[in-house]
Amino acid sequence: MIGNPDVIVALNKLMGGELAAMDQYFVHSKMYEDWGLSKLHERIAHEFDDEKGHASLLIDRILLLGGKPDLSTRGPANIGSTVPEMLQFDLDLEYEVTRQLKSAIALCETTQDYQSRDMLLTLLKDTEEDHAHWLEQQLGLIEKLGLQNYLQSQI
């Protein structure tokens, strides 16, 4: 099947974002593990797996549309030094992915690629309702409880 070239470019850009998120989540999860913050390690390792699944879906769709997965579009990973900074960097990444997903969904609508659109809507739901929402909650808890109490709850 030959897909719209603009959609393939957009899917590759999204895949680059998912791969950057994988890198960032992987490093952050290992840092949490090293610091003994087992609950954060477990959750962020789960996020890594989710991002891996998203990247896999995007690669499958790019291949189905006759495109070539382009790893050179991979975005940068922003590695934090403190828990609040790490959570904020992860949230910033999710906000950027959300923006890119919405743009790609709009492109799929105009090109009438409804299968790609539906797949991206699923990724958007994960990004907004699971990943970003959870990160917003954690930053809110740090603000409400104080950093030390929050960190104690993550052991």
Automatic annotation (TrEMBL):
Q: Which GO terms describe its molecular function?
A: ferric iron binding; ferroxidase activity; heme binding
Keyword Metal-binding attributed: yes
Q: Where does Fe cation 2 bind?
A: E51, E94, E128, H131
Give the record's GO biological process terms. intracellular iron ion homeostasis; iron ion transport
Read off the PROSITE patterns from this record: FERRITIN_LIKE (PS50905)
Give the catalytic activity: 4 Fe(2+) + O2 + 4 H(+) = 4 Fe(3+) + 2 H2O; Fe(2+)(in) = Fe(2+)(out)
Q: What Gene3D superfamilies does the annotation carry?
A: 1.20.1260.10
UniProt GO cellular component terms: cytosol
Task: Note the InterPro entries from the entry.
Answer: Bacterioferritin (IPR002024), Ferritin-like (IPR012347), Ferritin-like_diiron (IPR009040), Ferritin-like_SF (IPR009078), Ferritin_DPS_dom (IPR008331)
Could you tell me which Pfam families the record lists for this protein?
Ferritin (PF00210)
Q: Which UniProt keywords apply?
A: Ion transport, Iron, Iron storage, Iron transport, Metal-binding, Oxidoreductase, Transport
The protein's enzyme class:
oxidoreductase
Which branch of life, at top level?
Bacteria
**Can you tell me which residues bind Fe cation 1?**
E18, E51, H54, E128
What does the entry list as the binding residues for Fe cation 3? H46, D50
Residue ranges annotated for the Ferritin-like diiron domain, each copy included: 1-146
Role according to the record: Iron-storage protein, whose ferroxidase center binds Fe(2+), oxidizes it using dioxygen to Fe(3+), and participates in the subsequent Fe(3+) oxide mineral core formation within the central cavity of the BFR protein shell.
Family indicated by similarity: Belongs to the bacterioferritin family.
Stated name of the protein: Bacterioferritin
Q: Which gene encodes it?
A: bfr
